[in-house]
Design goal:
Blueprint: H1 3-11, E1 35-45, H2 56-73, E2 77-87, H3 92-108, E3 112-120, E4 124-134, E5 157-161, H4 166-174, H5 182-193, H6 199-204, E6 211-215, H7 219-230, E7 233-237, H8 238-242, H9 246-249, H10 254-262, H11 264-273, E8 279-284, H12 289-298, E9 303-310, E10 315-318
Parallel strand pairs: 2-3, 7-10
Antiparallel strand pairs: 1-4, 2-4, 5-8, 5-9, 6-8, 7-9
Bound molecules: adenosine-5'-diphosphate and magnesium ion.
């Protein structure tokens, strides 16, 4: 199959919102009055971000999901995306399920594929998403209605959506570092391979959250980005965060049994510094607690308050009784990690 036949068969569909989609030298998007474009790119490299033998349908889903998660973090509504694909060969048995997984998630979010590039090479998937946000924020003088990493104040609450750490737990199991019962592995693996971007929550948090980021590299690392941009510190109640590891919360023998079996430090590492959660970590003034609850209900996305921002710089981790805790954590960073590190 040639390049153009491949593009036609797997990646070309009638356009909906876009003025012009696949087939010309450029795609064309019409921006709506009063709106701004939100744009983000994520690249997924075989052997680093996913195992080469990953189910192609799940991979198609995931490579768009991680991009939509960035739009969610900005409170942007997805519009369209481009797909740059390097493929070792034109393997239809791989392309069919890959494009199916990709386009099913695209349809679920009304985000259409409008173009891209296709070339031969080691498997590499690069997606750029385009979304829209109101040009005007609710705060006076705001230059955008997008949620940003900056903008929160000391005293604001810190929240996280959904569950945390299960993707990192699955990765450890798949790498043979620990042995999970099949039913637990299935749930955790689903979180690793089929993350659901929190687009509806991001939209509902416009005008409510004071700062927001998505959790892709680990809770504390991504919260750290907010702290840095806001010039603030934070206190985080680790017990509240650790309760969000679904595999642990659902353990038949209870959390204590889970901790005995897999180690409390594994729980801490997966929840606080594990990657690939694609949840949102966000802040809001205490006066907005009812509005946050409403946003959570409206988007059918659970959120948990895990701490608060403080003027004093640094991240203070405390237990349920307010006592300082100091877990040993190795947060992931693509360039500081050894090359045989996380996939
Ligand atoms: P050009 O050489 O002008 O950049 P290409 O020949 O690379 O154009 O691509 C032809 C058309 O197919 C363009 O509209 C491009 O956006 C689209 N396209 C190429 N690869 C993909 C892909 N993987 N997914 C979607 N559209 C693609
Ligand atoms: Mg090209």
């Amino acid at each position: 199959m040639g390049e153009f036949e491949l593009i036609r068969q797997f990646f070309t569909r009638p356009t909906r919102g876009a003025v012009l989609g696949v087939g010309d030298d450029c795609a064309l998007l019409q921006s709506a009055p009063g709106m701004q474009m939100a744009i983000s790119t994520d690249m997924l490299v075989s052997g680093r971000h996913f195992f080469a033998d990953t189910n192609p349908q799940a991979l198609g889903h995931k490579c768009l999901a991680v991009n939509l998660s960035d739009l969610a973090a900005c409170g942007a509504r997805p519009l369209a995306f481009t797909l740059a694909l390097a493929l070792p060969d034109a393997d239809e048995a791989w392309l069919a399920p890959f494009s199916q997984g990709l386009l099913a998630l695209a349809d679920a979010h009304g985000c259409e594929l409008i173009g891209g590039d296709t070339t031969r090479g080691p498997l590499n998937i690069c997606i750029t998403v385009f979304g829209e946000v109101p040009a005007q924020g609710s705060r006076t003088g705001a230059v955008t209605g997008a949620l940003l990493r900056s903008g929160a104040h000391a005293g604001d609450d810190i929240y996280v959506s959904g569950t945390l750490g299960d993707a990192a737990l699955a990765l450890r199991a798949l790498q043979g570092e620990l042995l999970l019962p099949p039913e637990v592995l299935a749930v955790a693996r689903n979180r690793l391979e089929r993350p659901e971007p929190r687009v509806a929550l991001g939209l509902a948090l416009r005008g409510v959250a004071s700062a927001c980021a998505d959790v892709s590299d680990g809770l504390l690392g991504d919260l750290g980005h907010i702290l840095e941009r806001c010039g603030l510190g934070a206190e985080v109640q680790t017990d509240r965060a650790l309760a969000l590891l679904a595999a642990r919360a659902q353990c038949a023998g209870g959390e204590a049994q889970f901790d005995r079996q897999y180690g409390y430090s594994t729980v801490q590492q997966c929840v606080l510094a594990g990657g690939d959660d694609y949840e949102l970590v966000f802040c809001a003034p205490p006066a907005q607690r009812a509005a946050v609850a409403q946003a959570s209900a409206r988007s059918a996305t659970p959120v948990t308050r895990i701490g608060s921002l403080q003027a004093a710089p640094g991240l203070r981790l405390v237990d349920g009784l307010g006592r300082a805790v100091a877990p040993k954590l190795a947060s992931f960073d693509h360039f500081s990690a050894p090359s045989e590190g996380r996939l």
